[in-house]
Amino acid sequence: MSELTVNEIREKVDTLVEWDRLMKEGKRIVDGLKAELQKEGTERLKQGVIKQVEFNGSGANRVVVTDSETVELVYHGIILNVFGDMADNLIEQDVSYKPKAGFKKLAQAVFNGQYGEKTKAEVIGELGVDVKTGKLLDKRLKGTIKKDMEAIEVILGFDAMLAEQLAIKIAEAIVYEQIVAIGGAAQKDFAEVVCAIRNAMIVDEKISLAVEYPQDKVKAPKAESKIEAA
Questions:
Q1: pTM of the entire structure?
Q2: What angle do CA 140, 146, 150 make, to 5 degrees?
Q3: Phi, psi of 135 (to 5 degrees)
């Protein structure tokens, strides 16, 4: 059970919003100052061979602008053709794989056990609606729970709780269909597909927090910068 009162929550939300505003305004000022100093540093770096310029503030305050270069191999075939066996001493192969967006979403559902045992058509069929309404539901419901809830409330007149329950069933049915489709294409049964995804993928849970408020301009003191070369 929550230990915060309504007033405590309100106070914390207001305080968070206030600090978030200040942080964003501060970031805008910081980014501007960095851009000024980086521009000045870039101009001075052009004047010599040294790859670093320092700007001093008061006391130990200091900003360092460094020119760093990134080396990227674009046409590895040239190195292989020209240097032959020697190429192994010059370059190395680095192959990486990442799941595509659709498969990533499927893996998340499988990892969390969010799949059913019925198709989308079967779930809709159990509602006992007429053919026209069934086709409309099949077209509108895509497996995105919040959007599907809105559609269900409008089409069927369900309250929020019933709409959420049906939206979850639809989402799980769509995942079920995807697993069956992958299994059919790979000639694997349902359990094998689920097992393979669970063993091959790692799903890390991340809790995020969003701060929302009217974006009126925050009054903040103007920042002035004086550049002193090292």
A1: 0.64
A2: 55
A3: -65, -40
